């Protein structure tokens, strides 16, 4: 049998990247989440060729202190948690300390970061190797440019879809991040053309209008509900406004976009008999809860989470929607014709 040895760092990071970084949209998600965790007020996402050529995320957040920059690129290195207790009460988007080393191991990553009042610092890594490092002039915040994604992992590179498909994934994740963070001004442009911009004034209804259009936003009503464990708020569409796909529903748990089939069913249940079969409403639901009630550490990309008291939350969501729609008695009840 061959000798058992530890994997070289770059290889270990590439393996981690296999889980966290699936496509350009994953890079966008990880970089924007880092910007959110750094208390940014404004985040600009500039991509070229649907992110296949370049992804740049500029934030005005805390920045990283010069001496800490190389540590940020080590695997499992994070400023966000440092105890098991904190792991079970995560309040930040990140905590696994995997994104930067993962991306830097499968791409060219150039980071310029500045803490207010200090000099800026540049750190440039390609395929896990530092190629450039030193002082750099910039405004407070962090500016990350990722290019040549998967240049050294051909299987991953081949798996990428057309620019149109990859752009679709990026736009989708940027929408969800903007819906989860209405107090942050987020913009997205591709090849210099602006595709999306949120004002960052905290108005969720305006973010919905920026994404789905004013006509859709006008037909969405505010809902709210709370019990001892959960607080639910957001907007759902009137029963007359539906689509044939369920993808216009966004579930946010403490500002984090997640997917949860049970909660999607609860939204539908809230419509009672008001929806036609095969039709789905628009919904954006922000769920606030004690972080101890949710385990985010189930999925490397954190798309799925484990929720305590899921049934209780489902009932609360369905009730909040049902009661709000009951007030709209001018809307015909399509399901009740039989
Ligand atoms: P995680 O987000 O799980 O902590 P990352 O690899 O994404 O791990 O980032 C490592 C560390 O680098 C973070 O914990 C944070 O301290 C720092 N960092 C990364 N991006 C930014 C940013 N845009 N602004 C400020 N600090 C950042
Ligand atoms: Mg992160």
TrEMBL record:
<keyword id="KW-0255">Endonuclease</keyword>
<keyword id="KW-0234">DNA repair</keyword>
<comment type="similarity">
    <text>Belongs to the DNA mismatch repair MutL/HexB family.</text>
</comment>
<dbReference type="GO" id="GO:0004519">
    <property type="term" value="F:endonuclease activity"/>
</dbReference>
<feature type="domain" description="DNA mismatch repair protein S5">
    <location>
        <begin position="208"/>
        <end position="326"/>
    </location>
</feature>
<protein>
    <recommendedName>
        <fullName>DNA mismatch repair protein MutL</fullName>
    </recommendedName>
</protein>
<keyword id="KW-0540">Nuclease</keyword>
<keyword id="KW-0227">DNA damage</keyword>
<comment type="function">
    <text>This protein is involved in the repair of mismatches in DNA. It is required for dam-dependent methyl-directed DNA mismatch repair. May act as a 'molecular matchmaker', a protein that promotes the formation of a stable complex between two or more DNA-binding proteins in an ATP-dependent manner without itself being part of a final effector complex.</text>
</comment>
<keyword id="KW-0378">Hydrolase</keyword>
